[in-house]
Amino acid sequence: MRKTVPHFLLSCLCLLAVESYSQTIYVTPLGNDQNPGTLQKPLATLTGARNRARLLRRQKTLTKPIEIVVRKGEYMMTEPLVLSAEDSGSETAPLVFKGEAGSTPVFYGGMRLGKFEKVQNWLWKVDIPEVRRYGYQFEQLYVNGQRATRAQAPNDGFYQPKAVTETVLNKGTGRSPEFAAQKITVPVESMAWLSKLSDAELNKTVVTFYHNWDNTRKPILSVSPADTAIYIAGEGMKPWNKITNQSLFVIENLQAAMDAPGEWFLDKSGTLYYRPRPGETIANTTCFAPGNEKFVIIKGDEKTGKRVSNVRFENLSFQIAGYRMSPFGVEPEQAAARVDATIQLDFADNVSIVNCEIAHTGGSGIWFRRACANGKVQQCYLHDLGASGVKIGETIIRPDSSELTHHITVDNNIMRSGGHVFPCAVALIIFNGRDNALTHNEIADFRYSGISVGWVWGYAFSPSKRNRVEFNHIHHLGWGVLSDMGGVYTLGVSEGTVVSNNVIHHIYAFDYGGWGLYTDEGSTDIVMENNLVYACKSSGFHQHYGKDNVIRNNIFADNIKAQLQATRVEPHRSFSFTNNIVYFNSGTLLSSRWDQVDLVSDQNCYWDTRARQGLTFGKQAAPDWQQKGKDQHSIVADPGFVNPEAFDFRLANTEVAQKIGFKPFDYSQAGVYGTLAWKNKARLDSAVAQEFDEMVAQHEKK
């Protein structure tokens, strides 16, 4: 008689076979990394899922995606997810980490603190034993989904130094000293916080200086009450951007200064003190302290050049990450260039981050750094960031050109509220990189520039070519704390780079700067067209120095100090300025040396609503300006905007525009696209916009 396999046993064998070779791996908050990762026996962590995916790849050649499905819930990440070249998928079988449909699982890179207890109505505390036992320290705190303020003075605004002197201890060979000490004479009111501190307390106190486009963060080494001075040390000040009596500063991590709602202080015993905000109760308060600085590290093989390839993240939220300052402080660096990101990639090809959230960080959000190509960040929400939103490329130029990062697409993202730890950070920046596309992004509420492209100062070789900055909405930047910034900022020789169809407005610097479009040192062969720029402090367009840039078919309207600015006079064609509409009701038309640089200017429309007769170009009347060959076919006329007082710059009719060859463009297309919910999420809170307007009004009164 022939023996047969019992039906139930056959079914079990089939199920085991499916489980062994299933290409869907499940993760849940109550899973276990010893499980096989099936729906019935899920894993607990992304690292466990990565290990399971490695096992599947070793068992057979895959022709379909490996999908790591993260089920709804909250996950505590005790370490970052690390992917290497062996985790690569293929074009037909990528490795996919995704939240299950209908939910967005949340990964926290920190610890949820225990329940607060009341010290007084205005003061709470919670014990953190890990501080005593393991030396656990953190410099950011997040309460009820908001960044809290480590106790600082002043609560609002800044102090300013009275004087700054430097003693060089080791000159070295560079442009700035290798080691020096600085004596900062400070206002008497700031000294009151410091004079009674012990040395141990003093050395944990941090002073952050805002000087032009940089920040310097240092521990205070010593205080001299007799001189009303503090001392800091480290690298010597940069001669091109020193701390001066025109700089700003705040003092942080002072328990005595914990006098405002939302402030906190952690003492060495492990007790965290917090002053609740209005409406917060102990019962309704959730508090997180960061542990990790990164959520995901993707790094291929530097020696062989083998990349991590074909990996995708979808529908995941990463929240709570920290930054801890070195005991020696942080030296100034433009754009906080070296500050790491929570998702950091090197030697990576075809890695996508889609429909994800990154929030409440100490550093930057995402960085496609060395040797990355064909990456994508799309429809992601990055907010409450310590530094930048997205960074592309390196700050150095490698001898091997194949290691240059290229073809990164950053499209349809919201980047809002950043630079909280490093105010000098740029929201979206390309250092050295080519053929990248920055499109349809919503960028608002940062303290420095919105988008920056290029990292070579002057006319030396730059690898940054053919980058596209298009259809972005960039606004409410600067906040009057730093200078020398732009909505879109460029550097270096940049053939093929295009900046078009962006809407840029409400850019306000502390001192000089606060431009809409800003071609800085050596910017060359850049086309800027079809942009709407309004309500910027210094001017709508400014070229510091550069060559053969094309500025055409833009609208510059209602900028505060001036509309157009050019600074350095050079023995070559600096730029052409044609077919633009310039409309204003404050400040001057031109600033600096616009009337002296070598430029082509023609077929533009100019209109000053205050002086309908006798428009001047610098110190020259229009006929004199035209006699020099400038704007010979331009006109002085009201362009006929629908409602410029309400920032509605649509043309009621195109009669005037046609006279100068201006081609109307639909500026409403700038910013994010998609569902109504996504567009609504991109809208800036009206209270934030009002606060910005009040800040501008206060500065303009001075």
UniProtKB/TrEMBL annotation:
<dbReference type="InterPro" id="IPR006626">
    <property type="entry name" value="PbH1"/>
</dbReference>
<dbReference type="InterPro" id="IPR012334">
    <property type="entry name" value="Pectin_lyas_fold"/>
</dbReference>
<dbReference type="InterPro" id="IPR039448">
    <property type="entry name" value="Beta_helix"/>
</dbReference>
<dbReference type="Pfam" id="PF13229">
    <property type="entry name" value="Beta_helix"/>
</dbReference>
<feature type="domain" description="GH141-like insertion">
    <location>
        <begin position="123"/>
        <end position="277"/>
    </location>
</feature>
<feature type="domain" description="Right handed beta helix">
    <location>
        <begin position="407"/>
        <end position="566"/>
    </location>
</feature>
<protein>
    <submittedName>
        <fullName>Right-handed parallel beta-helix repeat-containing protein</fullName>
    </submittedName>
</protein>
<dbReference type="InterPro" id="IPR011050">
    <property type="entry name" value="Pectin_lyase_fold/virulence"/>
</dbReference>
<dbReference type="InterPro" id="IPR048482">
    <property type="entry name" value="GH141_ins"/>
</dbReference>
<dbReference type="Pfam" id="PF21231">
    <property type="entry name" value="GH141_M"/>
</dbReference>
